[in-house]
Design brief:
mainly alpha, 62% helix, disordered C terminus
Length: 809
């Protein structure tokens, strides 16, 4: 079923198998005639209908058809609005979708009429009140502005003049509320999600009607009747929420023996609890600021009889669902519900100048949200962590709006460490959203006249931040450990290298270093990769403090320099380069440079010792079932394989990894030579020349397929080396070493496409650096002038084509 639009929902309804009754198909066809834009000779737009009787007739037809899909028994007239019939879930879902669009259409008409005269606070509230449900298992609420509420050509195409007088909608709403009550706990989750959407649309429509005193309602007290319906909705939502929440104890223990759902687990949904929370969130979203005004009576003034009163009992339920429930969908839904409560609390007219405001320091809501965020911002599921990040931003913005930015400072010790770490989290949504939240709070360019400084606030909370980082470096989730290493590296760079903030971080340096060393022995290579880089930055910021562990760190770096993963090899070289700069003051970095040169001398020729193998043999080994049996198992429900933390040993000790190959040691040396070239003031030509000669000689090997990968690495890094050495010096002392091997790779018919591509780019970049004529002259010495001309011309044409494409598009 496709619920992205009424047209698609009705079309998919007709195609259902087993087929639906002919009566339902007829209803669906009649609705399609109303919703699909008719093509005509003057461009395909339907002219507004000026005949009121025709408009009413079309509206009656639409309403009757919606009722037919919902199973509402209209044969008894208005005297029995609660009479309903059983229908298939597909019909019910489409009927709920159309009912929500009906309410949203009338809400939009009312909103457009009243928007121009609304106060700024009311206008802001109306802008954020549209409710949408995104998918059956993970519905979300998305705020939209008035402009976004305008319909596009791909949405509902029924004539906007089909707008009933509001007193006509009372009966429609009453019948829809009955349907919502009946199906709030429907077995099909898509139906429950659409019930939540209808509830939100009804709540918003009621809220706008109650504000509008200019509508002619033909003597009918529309506002009172709709408010009564909204209160009825709150009662059955609250009842359902309390019943489902009671299935769990506060310690996440399983439900009692009477509960008949043993097959449900952490990944699947848990009956209707998730959608009941979304329904409550949608209802609060529609109520807006009036929710706090009507349902908050102080911290001791509510018994929560309706189930939706903003009281201790509701907060206990939401805290249990958000932070303690075993199911991730329920936790995310609980966080969305809290997000709506926080949002409307900043829009309410409740007196914010005294300590009775719902967000005042020490209030139950504020303390509850902080407790929940400290747990959920570190949740193992990215879905929950994302929902917590949204709640965190809404919470900080709301508190700042009500009490000013100074009121945020007491919240930072609990929230700031988690906010910092999530800026490096692997899931892109969490990472980017957290980065934007940081800018929203601390960036003066976005938050005008802010006095808060991010680095300063982190330094003041250095103890809490460092302790949290150390704890997360030992987390079970390898993604969290990876992010923690990046966060430790950042704090060392931003605070440790700053004279103003360094004293705040100094007491925690040994703790952070030991946490990084722990991750340096991790079984997960991405964690080791980030720990490797982070240790280099940490040594650069605190060379004296790291001196005692330098021997062990140097051993780990050089071990990673021949790792099986190319990015680990490259980052190990970068870390060694940072260490070389860190100890530059000690005899020009001799403490690092001398043993490093000895290792390069030993490892560069190792590619020659790689066992001979043909490409066919390599492919056969990749497809050998025996070699891939009893290997690491992956779970589709997790982020990655279950990788253990290691306190001793390294990647070579891991039984699930292949052995290192000799050519990989040579490949790592290429990256290391690049880093030496970047620090030319420490490494003279007398040292570099023999290294380059050995490197070129090692890269000539062709007795194994990975030799092409080795040469590709050399060609990718050579332009960087040349630029670091300098145009003149490279041209005079180094260029001649590479010409023959480079031109041979460019013209090779048997080399891999990657190595040929890298060689061609290297040829073009070096010619650009030293001069095309000079480079061609060197190629002529080896009889490769024509090869260079062909390569250089093809690269120019390729880049010109890309430029033309960028201009065209």
């Amino acid at each position: 079923m496709d619920f992205s639009s009424p047209e698609r929902a009705l079309t998919s309804l007709v195609r259902r198998n087993p087929p639906l009754p002919e009566a339902i198909k007829s209803v669906s066809a009649s609705l399609l005639d109303l919703y699909v834009k008719k093509d005509n000779s003057d461009g395909g737009s339907t002219a507004p209908c000026s005949d009121t009787s025709t408009t009413t007739s079309r509206g009656d037809q639409e309403m009757t058809s919606i009722f037919a899909l919902l199973g509402v028994d209209t044969d008894n007239g208005d005297d029995y609005p609660t009479a309903v019939k059983d229908v298939r879930w597909e019909c019910l879902a489409v009927g709920l979708l159309l009912a929500s669009h009906w309410l949203e259409r009338h809400t939009r008409a009312l909103l457009v009429d009243s928007y121009s005269s609304a106060s700024s606070s009311a206008a802001a509230e109306m802008q954020q009140s549209a409710v949408y449900a995104d998918g059956p298992r993970q519905p979300c609420l998305v705020a939209s502005s008035t402009e976004n509420m305008e319909r596009s050509n791909d949405e509902i195409h029924i004539n906007d003049t089909v707008i009933y007088a509001h007193y006509h909608n009372v009966d429609f709403c009453e019948r829809v509320v009955v349907i919502c009550q009946r199906h709030l706990e429907h077995d099909e989750p898509r139906v429950r999600t659409l019930v939540a959407r209808v509830i939100g649309a009804h709540s918003k429509y009621t809220g706008l009607i109650s504000r509008d005193s200019n509508n002619d309602n033909n003597g009918v007290d529309v506002s009172s009747q709709l408010i009564a319906q909204r209160n009825k909705i709150s009662h059955f939502i609250g009842t359902s929420l309390k019943e489902h929440a009671a299935m769990y104890d506060e310690d996440r223990s399983l439900p009692g023996p009477d509960f008949q759902a043993p097959a449900l687990d952490d990944t699947t949904g848990w009956r209707a609890l998730e959608t009941s929370l979304i329904a409550l969130a949608s209802w609060i979203n529609g109520c807006g600021g009036t929710y706090v005004d009507q349902f908050y009576h102080g911290e001791e003034g509510s018994s929560n009889e309706s189930g939706v009163e903003l009281s201790s009992s509701l907060l206990i339920i939401l805290e249990g669902c958000s932070a303690k429930h075993i199911n991730r969908h329920v936790r995310a839904a609980g966080l969305q519900c809290l997000e709506q409560i926080i949002r409307v609390s900043s829009l309410s007219t409740y007196d914010g100048s005294n300590e009775q405001h719902v967000l005042h320091e020490g209030s139950e809501l504020r303390d509850c949200v902080v407790r929940i965020l400290t747990v959920c911002l570190a949740d193992n599921w990215s879905q929950v962590r994302m929902a917590a990040s949204v709640l965190n931003r809404e919470f900080l913005v709301a508190v700042r709006k009500v009490y000013g930015e100074e009121s945020l400072v007491p919240l930072f010790p609990a929230l700031l460490p988690r906010m910092c770490l999530n800026r490096f989290y692997l899931a892109q949504g969490v990472k980017l959203y957290s980065q934007d939240t940081w800018k929203l709070i601390f960036d003066p360019a976005i938050t005008c006249f802010t006095k808060l400084n991010g680095a300063e606030e982190v330094s003041k909370c250095a103890g809490a931040v460092c302790r949290y980082y150390v704890k997360m470096c030992d987390a079970d989730n390898h993604v969290v450990r990876e992010a923690s290493c990046q966060a430790v590296a950042e704090i060392a760079e931003r605070l440790g290298c700053n004279e103003e903030y360094a004293p705040y971080l100094a007491p925690f340096v040994p703790m952070l270093l030991q946490a990084l060393i722990l991750c340096f022995h991790d079984e997960s290579w991405p964690v080791r990769d980030e720990a490797c880089l982070a240790c280099g930055k940490f040594v650069k910021a605190y060379p004296e403090e790291c001196l005692d562990d330098l021997g062990m760190l140097f051993e780990r770096w050089t071990d990673h320099l021949c790792d099986q993963i190319w990015s680990v090899r490259e980052d190990a070289a970068v870390a060694l380069g940072d260490a070389l700069l860190a100890y530059e003051y000690k005899d020009g970095g001799a403490i690092i440079l001398e043993p490093l040169l000895a290792i390069l001398k030993e490892r560069i020729p190792l590619a020659k010792t790689q066992p001979a193998m043909t490409r066919e043999e390599l492919i056969a080994s990749h497809n050998d079932a025996v070699l891939h049996t009893d290997s690491q198992l992956y779970s589709c429900g997790s982020l990655a394989p279950k990788l253990k933390k290691r306190s001793t040993g390294g990647c070579s000790d891991c039984k699930v990894r292949r052995e290192k190959m000799p050519w990989e040691a040579t490949d790592g040396c290429v990256y290391m030579v690049r880093e030496l070239c970047r620090h030319r003031h420490l490494v003279k030509d007398e040292v570099l020349l023999p290294i380059f000669e050995a490197l070129v000689d090692a890269c000539r090997v062709k007795h194994f397929p990975q030799g092409d990968d080795l040469r590709a690495t050399l060609w990718n890094q050579l332009p960087v080396m040349a630029e670091s050495i300098g145009k003149t010096t490279f041209k005079r002392k180094y260029l001649h070493m590479f010409i023959e091997l480079l031109m041979d790779n460019v013209s090779s018919k048997s080399a891999s496409a990657l190595s040929v591509h890298a060689a061609s780019h290297c040829c073009h970049d070096l010619a650009t650096l030293v001069g095309k004529g000079i480079f061609r002259g060197r190629c002529e010495e080896f009889g490769a002038g024509m090869i260079f001309d062909s390569c250089y011309q093809s690269k120019d044409l390729n880049r010109m084509g890309k430029s033309v494409l960028r201009t065209a598009y």
